[in-house]
Amino acid sequence: MRVGIVGLPNAGKSSLFTALTGAAAEAANYPFTTIEPNVAVVPVADERLDAVARTVGSSKVVPDTIAFHDIAGLVAGAHRGEGLGNQFLRNIRETDAIVHVVRVHDEPNVVHPEGSVDPMRDVETIETELLYADLEQAERRRERVVRAAKTGEPRIVAEAAWLDQLIAALQAGRPAATVPPPRDAPDAMAQLQPLTAKPMLFVANVEEGSDEVPAALVAHARSHGAAAVALSARLEAELAELEPSEAAAMRADLGLSESGLARVVRGAFSLLDLVAFFTAGEDKPAQSWHLCRGLTVWHAAGMVHTDMQRGFVRAEVVPWSELVDAGGYAGARDRGTLRVEGRDYVVADGDVINVRFTP
Ligand SMILES: Nc1nc2c(ncn2[C@@H]2O[C@H](COP(=O)(O)OP(=O)(O)OP(=O)(O)O)[C@@H](O)[C@H]2O)c(=O)[nH]1
Ligand SMILES: [Mg+2]
């Protein structure tokens, strides 16, 4: 899973990124600190995976990861070439979701590119730039598709008509997500990868010790099918440098219940409606994976290895808690909680899966 971080210069993107990695992405008090795309790969801790690994005697635990892409700040007018941000948007076209960092804290020492702190104005600025970036891309694509549509091929004709609709929507300020692709060209959206069709998680960068998302931002997120969490990016970046026990003590002092980062990771996952499944064997790694809800064990096999999908025969499936309860695969087989499933079985959250395949 890949996530792109967007926001105005100095909104706190690199601080959040630093917090996420515990590493030191450059975070400094002047706009455009980030001029190279930065990618942080964050493991998604899962206690269920740890329990499965212990039960079957796995050699090691390999949690699934989220890759966060930190890019330069966008400014109003980025689509006309203002600032540096626009050129970096293409680095996040291939991500699955967007984290939008909004400055809420009022620290006078941190320069604001617009001269004042106004979260909802800033949200609109960024969303407008995302719309323009999509519009530019859709127009470029339409030029090519219109030429190709002369052949009369139904798929291309349908895509051209869809692009007309999409362009009109973007011009009217509506996100690409509101224009579903046509039946004759179902992959048109996936090919274009518009930013405004991606699930969005707002991160309100609040003052230290607060964990409240401003009501207007909550309402905005809700009306756009997005989610919102609050944290102090600077505080989280500082806490990431401490020992976990020290960080927990400091969090308790500040009255913060949960790590802001746990909220970001959970928020990102809930946006995408994913289910976790596990693979594990004795003296083999125990691994977690994430798959869109509703997909089958055949899709799951393809995530683990293309050979497994190609040569798929059947899968042995057991819910993680049943496996732990039965003390291992043999016990689960005896109890009948380990089942044999065909390729159309829809994966459930927490399934432990062993694929049988012919290489
Ligand atoms: N008081 C306070 N300052 C913060 C917070 N988050 C970030 N800052 C400060 O704001 C400044 C800019 O933060 P960055 O994380 O570098 O901002 P950015 O969004 O990556 O900025 P660009 O890369 O220039 O687009 C730094 O001096 C941070 O220490 C916060 O939660 N509270
Ligand atoms: Mg930065």
Protein architecture, described:
There is one protein chain. With 359 residues, the protein is α/β, with parallel strands linked by helices. It has three domains: 2-42 and 65-117 and 197-272, 3-Layer(aba) Sandwich (Rossmann fold); 129-196, DNA polymerase, domain 1 (Orthogonal Bundle), CATH 1.10.150; 294-357, Beta-grasp domain (Ubiquitin-like (UB roll), Roll), CATH 3.10.20.30. Helices cover 40% and strands 19% of the residues. It has helices at 13-21, 47-56, 85-89, 119-148, 154-171, 188-192, 215-223, 233-239, 244-254, 260-272, 297-304, 306-310, 320-326, 329-335; strands at 2-6, 38-43, 61-62, 65-70, 97-103, 200-205, 227-231, 274-279, 286-292, 312-319, 339-341, 351-357. Strands 2-4-1-5-6-7 form a six-stranded mixed sheet, with helices on both faces. Helix 7 (215-223) links the parallel strand 6 (200-205) and strand 7 (227-231). The structure holds guanosine-5'-triphosphate and magnesium ion. Magnesium ion is lined by residues 13-14, 33-34.
Q: Keywords, please?
A:
about 350 residues, alpha/beta, Rossmann fold, DNA polymerase, domain 1, Ubiquitin-like (UB roll), 3 domains, six-stranded mixed sheet, 14 helices, about 40% helix, about 20% strand, flat, binds guanosine-5'-triphosphate, binds magnesium ion
Give the domain tally. 3
Q: What fraction of residues sit in β-strands?
A: 15-25%
Write down the CATH topology of the largest domain.
Rossmann fold
- Structural class determined from secondary elements: alpha/beta
Q: In this structure, how is the largest beta sheet organized?
A: 6 strands, mixed
- Report the helical percentage: 40-55%
Could you spell the SSE succession in H and E letters? EHEHEEHEHHHEHEHHHEEHHEHHEE
- What coarse outline follows from CA principal-axis ratios? flat
What's the CATH architecture of the largest domain?
3-Layer(aba) Sandwich
Fourth-level CATH superfamily of the largest domain? P-loop containing nucleotide triphosphate hydrolases
The CATH class assignment of the largest domain is Alpha Beta
Q: Mean of the pLDDT scores?
A: 90
Distance between the termini: 27 Å
The ligands bound in this entry are: guanosine-5'-triphosphate, magnesium ion
